[in-house]
Amino acid sequence: MEILVILVPLALMLGGAGLVAFLWSLKSGQYDDLDGAAWRAIADDEPPQEAPVKR
Amino acid sequence: MQVTRDFSHYVRDAGEGVRHIDLAVEGVHCAGCMAKIERGLSAIPDVTLARVNLTDRRVALEWKAGTLDPGRFIDRLEELGYKAYPFETESAEVAEVAESRFLLRCLGVAAFATMNVMMLSIPVWSGNVSDMLPEQRDFFHWLSALIALPAAAYAGQPFFRSAWRALAAKTTNMDVPISIGVILALGMSVVETIHHAEHAYFDAAIMLLTFLLVGRFLDQNMRRRTRAVAGNLAALKAETAAKFIGPDEISQVPVAAINPGDIVLLRPGERCAVDGTVIEGRSEIDQSLITGETLYVTAEHGTPVYAGSMNISGTLRVRVSAASEATLLAEITRLLDNALAARSRYMRLADRASRLYAPVVHATALITILGWVIAGASWHDAIVTGVAVLIITCPCALGLAIPTVQTVASGAMFKAGVLLNAGDAIERRAEADHVIFDKTGTLTLPDLEVMNAADIPADIFELAGRLALSSHHPVAAAVALAAGAKSPIVGAVEEAGQGVRATVDGVELRLGRPSFCGAETLVGGATLDPEASIVAFSKGTAKFILSVRQGLRPDARAVIAALKMRDIGIEILSGDREPAVRAAAHALGIPEWRAGVTPADKIARIEELKQRGAKVLMVGDGMNDAPSLAAAHVSMSPISAAHLSRATADLVFLGRPLAPVVAAIDAARKALHLMRQNLWLAIGYNVLAVPVAISGVVTPLIAAAAMSGSSILVMLNSLRARSASREIV
């Protein structure tokens, strides 16, 4: 059962890392525009400067 | 005279020589729009950031301070096919956003803690029935405490604060039993852990907070979203005024940047955005938004004008006064304050439930403790059992019962074009059994329509529409809109207060007063609508008359019929003249109506109905309706309503149809039904669980399973509010 000394802190650290990542994403405004973000993921890359913007 | 647009009021300094402005944009709804706008705006030199927020329909723009005029962004968006307006975040919205983020942070912390405590609890549960050593169990309990205590202290803040506020005000709310339950559960668990006991309730306490925070966050998020839409609509209405910044120089500035004593120009067809007194010019003004009266009032030197009045014929210069000088407004404000004070006495369903719930639960826990002591148990065991009762009864499902339904129902209403202003509006809405309609702008549409377009040859009507484009008069604008005219007639001349004339192919065209077109005889001969404005059109010697008025909302009749089918009493209270009100009431089949009613009379009528036990729903838009909107049990305004009324109403509906009035009643009734059902589910759960808890056989495993089971059941039941009935009739 000595393995607990490693496993428990490891589990807590992983959980803590998840929490920190969540708080960071919240702070950096990742949840401000959920609808837009869904579309941005599938949007095309920026076209070259001169290319006409097509809809 | 030169007119400049001044956006400096909206521009913020974002530091390091960068300027920032937020624009509300109409018509953005897909990824294509988003990319088009962002690319179009980024192409302007010096722009450093252009980012669309699709959820809130806004664009954030940043650029290097210098020569770039923010007006250019609006022009660019116009070229791309979007209407944009500078936007100022209201302080109320900022507060909602901050609260929403705080709740999400609390939820994140609570969810993290729940997952980790559960990870530690499950080994203990399984270990207790197999071969776990007491030392290992204590170690796991201490670890749970280490996670749960700080997490609960942080994530419990929304509940602890609200409970403290309620207790300080010597009342109770749902958060009081929640806070007591959580604190006692945690406290007892710490004591038990110190005494190497078998059971600790860290998981139950923190899981309770997580579930409740989900409900809280959903509720808050819906409010935030509604607030954002309302903020955009306010920006789209673009309340600006033409302010004199020199003897001959005008700047179009937002109303917020205008001070008492300033002089503003009011052109024909413009809506006045300020209160003030006319100092120069002569015109007719339409005060229907303020008084409900559709007859125009003559304005000249010394006439007071109020925000919301429409200038009809001439150009006016208005000196802005402080609002307190306006006697009409002062009167309305006084009535409004009284009415609002009366309404705040309404007690929400959740608070009523918790007022019954808290004493019952706490008494049960106390009786359990005393009962076990009398039965011969030790004080320690008795208290542990008592706290277990509190944990098992902690209103997890009860706390979710109402917010989840409210969230789902307000989402359904949102889709039907109804925005909620007040949190408890759904409950009050569901109880309404008598509807009072205002006429002007509520039963009728706020904009003018040509009523007899079908009687006029199409080519003549089109010509009249093109000629009308050259006039600023609102009636002319209505004619142009009805005729779908696009290209104005070249060389058309407007004669102030008379009409427009032009010559095409040697034939003279005139549009305006009947006398201006020589059509008095036509007007005298016809039987006409008392409410309509008559304009004449002449082409050479051929003469026509057009009758222009505010039309009834397209589905008004169907809505009235639908309300009657639901056994809801209907009446009209209008500030307008008798013939006009009678005509509308007759057309809609409403037997009960009163005309020429003052704001005080409207309140008196509502009070009278209240005395008889009716729950009144007031639907109105005028500033004169604001006090009665506040006095009624629940109230509703169209989005075109006066500022004050829109802010006072519990619900605001969008668009031209009146159908949202019925849709909202149906959705609210269904929601209230589900709320009650949820409360019964929660009570039913308690009836099953409490005897188990009192008997002292509850383990943390049972508590956790019961709590999540009942919460999920209530949430699933709430989702049924989503299918709020669409069909009206």
Automatic annotation (TrEMBL), chain A:
Transmembrane feature ranges: 6-26
Q: Does the keyword Transmembrane helix apply?
A: yes
Keywords in alphabetical order: Membrane, Transmembrane, Transmembrane helix
Q: Which domain of life is it from?
A: Bacteria
Asked whether the UniProt record includes Transmembrane helix among its keywords, one would answer: yes
Q: Which NCBIfam families does the entry mention? A: ccoS
Q: Which PANTHER family match?
A: FIXS PROTEIN
What is the protein name stated in its UniProt record?
Cbb3-type cytochrome oxidase assembly protein CcoS
Q: Which organism is it from?
A: Bradyrhizobium forestalis
Automatic annotation (TrEMBL), chain B:
Q: Which CDD domains match?
A: HMA, P-type_ATPase_FixI-like
> Any idea which UniProt keywords this protein has?
ATP-binding, Cell membrane, Membrane, Metal-binding, Nucleotide-binding, Translocase, Transmembrane, Transmembrane helix
Domain of life according to the entry: Bacteria
Q: Which GO terms describe its molecular function?
A: ATP binding; ATP hydrolysis activity; ATPase-coupled monoatomic cation transmembrane transporter activity; metal ion binding; P-type ion transporter activity
State whether keyword ATP-binding applies.
yes
Which family does the entry's similarity section mention?
Answer: Belongs to the cation transport ATPase (P-type) (TC 3.A.3) family. Type IB subfamily.
**What's the protein name?**
Copper-translocating P-type ATPase
Q: Which organism is it from?
A: Bradyrhizobium forestalis
